[in-house]
Amino acid sequence: MDYPRTGHEYRGHRVTYETADRQRGVDYFGVVVQYAAAIILVALIVMLCKKGYDVGYAVLANRAVDDAGEGQTVTVTVMEGQTVNQIGTMLEENGLILDAAIFPMQELLSSYHNKIAPGTYELTSEMTPTSICEAMAYKPSESSSTDSTGESGTREEAPVCAATDVWAAITAMFTDQDLGQFQK
Question: What single DSSP character describes residue 123?
């Protein structure tokens, strides 16, 4: 006569071996899911750290497009009201900088922050982003002019660039499809 396999009593419930086996399988599955989640989390952290390093390197390296000294000269025009993002896009399209999304941060960290003035500029691909900002920065004129009150002095123009463009550039980098494609 075969008796059904019985287990033991656990918290007032009769547990059979089949129930215990089923519970053990669920426990193993839970452990596997926890390990998989931990591996995925570590992989995401590594990817974010690599992305942060690439962005930081691109911003702080301040490299010219053409390091060999055979650069091309390009004439660019900065219009009144253009943002740093728009200027960066224009510079990248003309082959003067490596990445338009990085340019606003490079401008922010340079000593020429908010000093880019409207005008036409002769720039070369041998110039670094900081030297490009320097070339486009407004320099007060030495000549005196008379303002509307009749007093003489130097006229100072308002800068074109806005600091609010930096946050837009940072968020655009993390939503861009070409993440981590910065040249070193």
Answer: E
> pTM of this prediction?
0.56
- Give the integer Cα–Cα distance in Å for 146 and 155: 8
**Residue whose C-alpha is closest to residue 92's, from 158, 178, 163:** 178
Supply 132's token pair: 């490009």
Distance between CA atoms of 121 and 116, rounded to whole angstroms? 11
55 contact partners, CB below 8 Å, separation of at least 6:
102, 105, 173, 182
Q: Which of 76, 81, 9, 50 is nearest to 173 (CA)?
A: 50
Residue 78 phi/psi, 5-degree rounding, is: -100, 125
* Sign of the CA dihedral running 173, 179, 181, 184: positive
Question: Would you state the pLDDT for residue 13?
Answer: 64
User: Of residues 180 and 31, which shows the higher confidence score?
Assistant: 31
Classified as helix, coil or strand, 80 is coil
